[in-house]
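Reopening: F-box domain-containing protein still failing for me.
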Amino acid sequence: MAPICVLPNELMARILTIYAAETDTLFNLKWSKVMYVGRHWHELARAAQSLWSFIDLVWHGSYETLYNQLRHSGVAPLTIKLALGEYAQYTDIILDECERISSLLVTTRISYLDVSGTSQYVYELIGKLPECRLPILRSLSLDPSYKRDELPPNIVEAIPPVLFEGILPSLRELKLKSVAFPLGSLSGLTSISLTECLDISAGLPSIASFRGLLEMLGSCPELSTLKLELTTPEPIPQQSYPTVDLAALTWLQLREDVTLCTALLKHVRFPPTTSVHVLPSGVFNGMDIRELLVPLHKHARSPGAPALPLLQIDCHPYGTDSRNISYCTMALFTDTQLHDFLERSQAHCPFSLNSHPSTEVALRQIVAKVLKAIPGHLITHLDARNMSYPGEVSWKTILKLLPALETGYLRVNESAVPCVHALTQIEGLQQQRENFPRIQRLQVLIMPHTKSESENNMVDEFLAALGQYFTVCKGNETPFEVLDIEDPRYALSQTERQAQLERLFPLMGDRLLWNGQVYDPVKRREKLAKRKAEWKALAEKYGLDTE
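Support: Ran it again with your exact input. Result attached.
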């Protein structure tokens, strides 16, 4: 173990780079505060050219910053984020350094600017790219979608085919949105993201073909990430297509019509460890999703597929109309920790599927078909905190398809009470009881958004439903091994609700948790009496009115 002051400069520079990357400060230069530690660190950071090569002209654009970073970065490859709106004048300066640009992200989706004709700057840059030498450019992202409808009709919205004919020899990552490009010219890529893109391989967008897309994917055998949104052309009916083998694919996201998603999944072969996220349009009932589940069923049950013990179901109605469902998303995770919606793109979420059921009957059909297609018998945890729609019948359907379920996560909302009622009905069954799981741990989140009467009634109804469930379970096994209630706003502190909790206590004992602590009504009353006495003494000391 050596003191940090005697470490070699190369190792110290590596440590500073790790610090900047881990704190997400490479682009905003906030990592540079370490330069004030001492003269040695200041000189070391100034000499680390690669640390200065990450240039952000979207949020941190200024001539001074740009020139300073270009000067300090020396000959290091550049990674540039460029917003062609207010900072369009930087284009020529950046392209003067084109021979050492390794990553170029160009976007006009600037939330804090309202500049008319902004997309035109992106197309002007696209027109200049064929004149530049970009020998080490590995990552290219173009997004001219902002205010594109305001452009004149004669503006060319396409990448010149010559750009992919040797000008970008090192290109490996491509991200395009609302851009026409030559699909047949792409090859050797490791990452592809296409959103609302057209194919101009033969000069006309109308020749875009499903076969051409498969051939392009086949020319990228090392492809690791693939994202297609509203880009896939329609396959010709009754025509056979080749199957593309993407052995290196680790992440796949599709947002297309359900028929296009199905066609792609049937003609693209990838490892069982690939994370698959499908957001199909046109799925309103069980019939709509049946064909799509055939390749997904095969993928989920392939040898080597990861175990997926946690199922997360999000289901919300349209606005305040509980009769119409807005969407239903099912996601499976490799661990049993609770996850936020944005975490679904991470490695621990290998599968997610979205749908838009038209009715609750359609919801039951879709959920039932999905749970039969994936290994539902291996799911031990269910996260239903964001389910605000299903009724008792739907809950019974879901629970019956999860025979190994041990832990459930609920939030007190419109669907929590029907869930407990479904558990109560299941406990009352005799011959069919063995077909349903017995949940051992139930974690409940009570988080009312407001103090409205309806939300307060919801909490009361949930506690009453729990009481009924405990009554049915009386004389049998303990209802839950653990009942964990998270109540960050202490909605259960009211006297009436405390009485309801105390009625649950005899059956649960020290297995009833409230905000992470064992709930004991006797000790709680003693603690409250002690606090009341302390407050009274303090009030009398300072002459306050104890009433």
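Residues 159 and 181 are 5 Å apart (CA to CA). If you still see a failure, please send the error message rather than a screenshot.
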